[in-house]
Specification:
alpha+beta; Alpha-D-Glucose-1,6-Bisphosphate, Chain A, domain 4; 8-stranded antiparallel β-sheet
């Protein structure tokens, strides 16, 4: 009987978390989940936000390298190192200063684009051991649901609680900043 009670309690917790996440998304608040992938010693991040702007407007904000340091406070620079003339992929270098007590991170990622719908990224160099995932844009009744799903781990030891704390602080701020810039841009059109 005890295993059955544990299973019921676990299911109840999952349903509660899902309902809270759905309620936050419905109000335009960011929803962020971070978990540890013990096998890879990495953080698995899932996040989303609803934005009252079209996917085209959100896409333009999300892919604007020159503008990204103003949107993401921990990003010192974004530079396109190499790109496809057809606009299907590019390699970007980011310099991130995410903590005063940690070294700056330099990331080099290859972004592959399904323009207006999906941005997939994968580490090709830099200070991350793992950095891969995607941003997805889906039209909805409010405008666009922007979702993020990634696996990340720096190439130097960092206590997992620090990674989780940084994600739980920085990711909602980033999502809100993308939301704000997108809504402002939508208002200009």
């Amino acid at each position: 009987m005890v295993p059955l009670l544990r299973a019921a309690a676990g299911l109840s917790c999952l349903v509660t978390v899902a309902l809270i996440g759905a309620a936050r998304a419905a109000t335009g608040d960011p929803v962020v989940h971070v978990a540890t992938d013990d096998k890879l010693n990495a953080a698995h991040i899932r996040a989303s936000i609803d934005i009252a702007a079209s996917p085209a407007v959100v896409w333009a904000v999300l892919t604007d390298c020159a503008r990204m340091p103003r949107i993401m406070p921990t990003l010192e620079s974004c530079r396109i190192v190499q790109h496809d003339t057809a606009g299907k992929w590019e390699i970007r270098e980011h310099v991130i200063n995410w903590s005063a007590i940690m070294p700056k991170l330099r990331t080099l990622v290859r972004n592959t684009y399904d323009v207006g719908h999906r941005l997939m990224f994968k580490r090709v160099g830099g200070d991350m051991r793992i950095s891969q995932g995607e941003w997805k844009l889906e039209p909805n009744a409010r405008g666009t649901r922007l979702s993020y799903d990634a696996l990340v781990a720096p190439d130097f030891p960092v206590p997992q609680f620090m990674v989780e704390q940084a994600v739980n602080t920085d990711m909602p701020n980033l999502l809100r900043a993308i939301q704000k810039a997108s809504v402002e841009d939508a208002g200009k059109k």
